[in-house]
Every structure is written in structure tokens, then in C-alpha cells.
């Protein structure tokens, strides 16, 4: 008999050792045998929180409010939370006080801003900004009560009567509106991808415009100024509108008449354009020098005629065997200071010998002579007169001969 009792006691002890911890874990939760994570939040208004209020994270209960107390040094209230051990909540999360049920029972819901760590640890502060808290039920019910107190029952009755009268006989029309709304909804649903793309692009456009607001304002101001100028020049615009059709017709006739020639001209431009594009620097220099050259041409004008002189020779010059660069290459290069023109009579000196050299180098390292080319120098330039000048000289000679006979 004693053996049976002993066996029963052993079985009872084993059962209790298994069932009791399981029951405690079932009732108290997963943190029954581990210390909870203690967090705190500082709020200017506790919003009616009390110890035992549930705390949820992503809608799942993870703990409860441990205590609520005043914090005079911070001018508000200090709320402490006990969260289940092992709960991982990002540090940038915020706590909001809301209603867990329609019965108005409060709870604290934690909203994360990221899905990754670092995570809150025991003793950390959980942010609970007051301006991020939702409107509380007591305030909402108070505002609703004030709104209802401000309504006159007679006015509400009159409004209902007038609305009934206004909708009387409009049943078919309302039915048609509902059916059309259903068709419109179906149409919008079928065009949902295009509408979504349109909204996304509109959002991107608005974002770009917000980033360039200053330029947009300046552009709007320029458009306004342009519009004012157009308004001020309205007589000229009216004149152009009246006479432009005739001018455009003449231009069209010109293009129609010479359309084959225009084609050849465009083809020639396609050939010439690469040549000009490779010589942009030379063309720019030429455009700078042409006005000065035209001014100097005035010096050859004598009365109503222009005098030209042809220089038959200029004497020999020095030639240097240097590598020519590609057209359009304007990259800087190092000068060759070893080139010089060998001394000689009537040689046009060119090269580094006649150019200023830095650091008083003079003729040092001048080791590469140039090659003398060209015809020899004549005592005086040979002037070749034009036909008109020769005729004038002949007539002048005849006149002098005639004067000598008299």
C-alpha cells in the first residue's frame, strides 16, 4: 500500500513539474521566466494611460504599461513599458496612444519607421511626440457634443423636408447616374495602369518643379514680360498678320521654282560643313580680323579708284622640317628652341632665333638650322601696272609729247 502511494506521489510531482511551468507560460506569456525589456517615454500629457494598458507592435501585443508618473523636471509625464523579452523594435519607432477596441479601451501602439536595427534595449527611451498622437475619444466625443448642441432641431427638420422635395421625381435620373458611375468605375479600372503611370509622372514633374521653383518663377516672370511686349507691339503684329500671307506665298513660289537648286545647295552644305567645323578656331580668328583688314583696304583708294601693287619677289626664307598638326588641334605644345635660320644675305629670319626667349637664353642650344628656299632678292619690287594704269600712262606720255612740240 505504501509503495502505491509513493508511486502516485512521484507521478504527481512529475506531472506538476511539467504542467505548472507550462500553465504559467500560457497565462503570463513568453516572458514569464525572463526579465522583460523596460522602456520609458516622456510625454507632455499621459492621455489617460494607466498601468496594465496593453502595448502592441504592428498590431501584435508585445507588453503592457508598467507605470505612469509625473515628471516635474521635464514638465510632463513619464510612462514606463514592460515588453516581452526578445522583442526587437527599431530605435526610430514612435509610440501612439489610441483605442484598441470600439469600446474605447486604450492601448499604446508602436509604429516603426524602418525594418532593420539598431533595436531598442532595456533602459532606452521610446519616442512619443505629442504632435503625432491621434485625437482621443474624449475630445472627439466632446467636439461632437458641441456640434450637436449647436444644431437647431427645427432647422434639421426643414433641411430634411427640403431635401425630400428636391429629390422628388428624380429617381430615374439618380438611377442613371448610379449606372453611369458603375460604367465609369469599370472604365477607370480597365485604365488603371495608364492612370497610375500618369499620376507617377505627374508626381515626378511636381517634384522637379518644386526643386526648381526659383527658375520656374523666373520663367513665369519672363513669360509675363514677353506677353506685355507682345501687347505693346500689337500694331506691328496686326501689320505682319495682314501682309504675311502674301509674303509667304511669294516665298513658297520661290522655293517651288528653285527646289532642285536648293537640293544641290543643301548637298554642298553637307560637304562643306565638316570642313568648316574642323576649322572653327581659324574661322573665328578670321571673323575677328576681317573688319580690321577691310579698314586697311581703304588706304589703297585714290580718288574713285583702287591702286594695287604686285610684289614680284620677297627673297629667300628658311624652311623647317616640322610635323604638322591636325586641323582643329589647338592643344598646347612645347616650343622647339633648337631651331634657327643660318645667317645669310637678304634672308627673312624666321624661327626661334628671332623670337624672344625666356630667362635670357639668347642663342643657347640653337643647333638645328633651317633650309633656305625661295628666289633671290631683287633690288626693288617689280610693280606690274593694271591695264587702266598702263592706258593712263600712255595718254600722259602722248600729252607730254604734244606739249613739247608746241
From TrEMBL:
Residues 36-112 form the Mce/MlaD domain. Residues 120-292 form the Mammalian cell entry C-terminal domain. InterPro entries: Mce, Mce/MlaD, Mce_C, MlaD_Phospholipid_Transporter. It holds the Pfam family Mce4_CUP1. It comes from the Bacteria. This is MlaD family protein. It comes from Rhodococcus parequi.
